[in-house]
Amino acid sequence: MTDTLDQAPTAPAAAPAPVRHPARAAFGAELRRGIAPWTAPAVALTIAVPMISKAPQWQGGWGDTQELLHSCATLLAGPLVAAAGCWQGGREHRRGTAALWLSVPRGRPAQSVMAALPVAVWAVVGHLLAVVGVLAATWPYTGAGGPSVGMVAVDAWFLVCAAFTGFVVGRLWRWRLAAPVLAAATYLALGAPTYTSSDLRFLNPAEQYYLAGRVPVAWFVPVMVVWAGAPVLALVIGYAARRRLLALVPLAAAALVAPLIVSGGDDLFRPDPVAERLICTEAVPRVCVSGLDGPLLSQASDALAGLRSRLDGVAGAPQRYVHVPEGGPAPAGAAPLPNHTRGWTVVRGRLPDPADYAHQTALRLAERDCPLAVIMAEDPAARRMWETDEAVAQWLAPLDGAWLDPDLGGTYLARLTAMGGAERRAWLGRYLATRTSCDPKAVPAL
User: Which parts pass through the membrane (predicted)?
Assistant: First the structure.
């Protein structure tokens, strides 16, 4: 009895260590070793460096920012990711372990996905890091609206496709220089179609879209995901699967969506409703800018103060100065404002040259939409009309360095300047009444 009481209590049996799923363990190891984790910083730097070097050209506009982001992600990061996937795919040949891998129980499709997916994951991580940084840098200078999540998703998906394509090439092409050669070939294959004018260029994932004031249509993302992913899936199936005829299924899907992309062409994007909404000053004549350029409203109004004061009391003077989409007509009773070019007329949400902005507005107020025959006419009457327009624009918004013919435009400007206030307002009223006319005889003489 005493011996029983003196015995020390036994410790409870230790719980067995949790067993990780073999696939998760293998995937975690692949994420941490080899070239895969280096893909993220490489992609981030490949996108960030050219974006930083051209910052004045995109900061302040969501569309301008995503235009360059799309180009960098596809045309620059795409070949890099394809090369990384190719290097990953060729590692078994370099190590001499290809036969050993064929002997393991896991099938070739699972082996291929497990080896290629880490490169794709890190490529997307690097892409998203660059995107977040760039969008954060442009946000303080923008107006309303926001970035297109669909464009970010399509670009990220393209990098995934590039990684798997490169991986299969690396498995099939047993050459140490296969990765850099594939990168160069990918760059050429993506870049060459951007110089063509055919609508077939929209099948190129690296097509340089014009995104300023435009957003993708609703079906753009799913169609582009199918178009970019289906051929890659067919390639992977053809390499890894036993039933290789299954590769025809994704190829058929790609063939179905290709005509939608080609027929859509430039209509793959629609005007951004925020860009079409105007933000206006209260004072008349009003200045109205696009909703995307809200921070420019007060600056534009201040820049046009002199022009508006010189037209005060003139019959037919514009009641509004409005942003008009490029190529579109101005509303009745309104004058169009100049279109912006990031990095030139607008830099980080500022007008670097208000005097030039006012002068460009005056030129657009005085310009005429005439047939080419009238524009190219050499007769004295037509030349007098064009020089009168130039003189009026220079008087309304003087700009140092503006060129005027000394014998015509310079003389007209001097006469307009020498007029009395009432006489000048009366003449300007007659002049503004002929803004839509291409008949030189209708323009009052100076």
Answer: 115-137, 149-170, 177-196, 216-238, 245-262
3 state DSSP class of 270? strand
How many domains in the chain?
2
One domain for residues 316 and 177: no
From CA 18, how far away is CA 52, in angstroms rounded?
A: 47
Does 389 fall in a domain? yes
pTM across the whole model: 0.84
User: How sure is the predictor about 92, in pLDDT bands with cuts at 50, 70 and 90?
Assistant: low
Give residue 151's pLDDT: 95
Residue 221 in 3-state DSSP?
A: helix
Q: How far is CA 373 from the centre of its chain?
A: 37
Contacts of 185 (CB under 8 A, 6+ apart): none
**What is the tens place of the pLDDT at every residue in 174-200?**
888 889 999 999 999 999 998 888 889
Provide the domain limits for residue 210: 22-274
Q: Do both 352 and 268 map to the same domain?
A: no
Residues 89 and 219 in one domain: yes
Find the angle CA(356)-CA(433)-CA(428) to the nearest 5 degrees. Answer: 55
**Euclidean distance between CA atoms 169 and 167, whole angstroms:** 5
| C-alpha dist (Å) from residue 260 to 67, 151, 256, 265, 301 | 22, 18, 8, 9, 44
Task: Using the 3D structure, point to which of 249, 274, 299 is the last residue of a domain.
Answer: 274
Of 274, 309, 334, the domain-final residue: 274
CB 165 within 8 A of CB 232: yes
Q: Are 405 and 387 in contact (CB under 8 A)?
A: yes
228 in a structural domain: yes
d(C-alpha 224, C-alpha 148), whole Å: 15
Pairing between strand 278-280 and 269-271?
unpaired
91 & 38 share domain: yes
Name residue, tokens 């303080």: 140
Look up residue 76 and give its DSSP letter.
I
pLDDT band, residue 19 (cuts 50/70/90): very low
* Same-domain status, 162 and 297: no
